[in-house]
Amino acid sequence: MSGLPRVAIIGAGSSALPVCKALRDAGVPYDCFEASDRVGGNWVFGNKNGMSSAYRSLHINTSRDRMEYADYPMPRDYPDFPHHSLIARYFDAYVDHFGLRPTIQFETTVERAARRPGGGWDVTTVRAGARRAARYDLLAVASGHHWDPRWPDPPFPGRFDGVVMHSHHYVDPTTPHDLRGKRVVVVGMGNSAMDIACELSREGTAARVMIAARRGAHVVPHYWFGKPLDQLITLPPWTPWPVRRWVAAAAHRLAVGDVTRLGLPAPDHRLGEAHPTISSELLPRLGRGDLVVKPNLAALEGTSVRFTDGTVEPVDAIVYCTGYNVTFPFLDPALIAAPDNDLPLFHRVFRPGLPDLAFIGLLQPLGAIMPLAEAQGRWLAAYATGAYHLPPEPAMHAEIARDRLAMFRRYVRSARHTMQVDFDEYLWRLARERRAGARRAAAAHHRLPLPARA
After folding, report:
1. Mean model confidence pLDDT for the chain
2. Is the pLDDT of residue 92 over 80?
3. 37 and 132 inside one domain
4. 305-352: per-residue pLDDT in tens?
5. pLDDT at residue number 217
6. Global pTM?
7. How many domains is the chain built from?
8. Three-state SS across the chain?
């Protein structure tokens, strides 16, 4: 088909790669820009672009079979929860298997993407100090949302004289700071916080490790009744959420039980109303006394910290595991911004009023992002070729409003819960929307929504 739009893809991480494949399969011309010298994004340990948050001991928390791309399964000799090095190897194999590597411009940073008054984008890239500008009809942003560290806001009062770092920069107990023999406070109750706290509490590492918990969390082990947790309970995606929650909560009570006796605060929400904390190591370490749970920080006092219960502990280092900001430094913030990490999108991809802009992987599933990004890539390819048409803007706004109302009713209000989706339900709803969009496209005789102008 002639006259297809030309697409610029920002990033070559796990969300961008299936977009490259889908566009190439559909014959849509594209350029993919990657700041690093290799693919894989956040899963590349020591990534030279400085954006990866992978620490040395990192393993996936979603099982292999739920993380893999549908058209390229992970090797069957991979364990259920592979190490980050195996995941990075998988992405390299995916790119080479489908011949995508020549289509990616490595060590190329997108400095600016400016929307033209009549539509389309002027994209300025930098490589080896040389700037280059090119025009595109469609911009696909797949730059990830786990690279801009988010710190406590407002900061805790007082002054701290020890080591202060964010989990984004944590590599291992000796890098970038030697924490062996130190008294460490890990702030947060998410997955990175639990991984880091457990690692530091092992024999021969930190002298004392405390977890500062602002609120309780439901701790979910990797295995329930001998099976990976995300493969145990499989209900149809249209099952009402209260039913799914009841089934999951019943299984969790049987598999885990009451953890408050180990010192964890009781969660102020029900299971599934916040992103779960997945760890099979945390509870045994609490039970052995290797870790101590404290309430949130109240103040910093030089070489000590004060907690909200009034207790004071001498501390050498604080590791903030407080999440990430959703930012797009290459876009005009007057056009696109995500204050408090909130950016409303139609099925987490399209922004009403900007038909030539798509976000890929900008969602937080109860499950892995990769298969969802793969489905988004196929959706984008159908859109670019005229096989799918978006609904009218009022219908898009109405759908967004319904999604947001359901999300905010269900989840704890925080910057961490602004783009939540359920894995299976999202795929089911997206497939339903694609069928509706295909009918709209057929009624319009498959006119290209974005004909080539670049």
Report:
1. 93
2. yes
3. yes
4. 999 999 999 999 999 999 999 999 999 999 999 999 999 999 999 999
5. 85
6. 0.94
7. 2
8. CCCCCCEEEECCCCCHHHHHHHHHHCCCCEEEECCCCCCCHHHCCCCCCCCCCCCCCCECCCCHHHHCECCECCCCCCCCCCEHHHHHHHHHHHHHHCCCHHHEECCCEEEEEEECCCCCEEEEEEECCEEEEEEECEEEECCCCCCEECCCCCCCCEEECCEEEEHHHCCECCECCCCCCCEEEEECCCHHHHHHHHHHCCCCCCCEEEEEECCCCCEECCEECCEEHHHHCCCCCCCCHHHHHHHHHHHHHHHCCCCHHHCCCCCCCCCCCCCCEECCCHHHHHHHCCCEEEECEEEEEECEEEECCCCEEECCEEEECCCEECCCCCCCCCCCCCHHHCCCCECCCEECCEEEEEECCCCEEECCCHHHHHHHHHHHHHHHCCCCCCCCHHHHHHHHHHHHHHHHHHCCCCCCCCCEEEHHHHHHHHHHHHHHHHHHHHHCCCCCCCCCCC
Q: Is residue 66 domain-shared with residue 30, that is, in the same domain?
A: yes
Domain that holds residue 134: 7-147+324-443
Q: What is the pLDDT of residue 233?
A: 66
In the prediction, which pLDDT does 17 show? Answer: 98
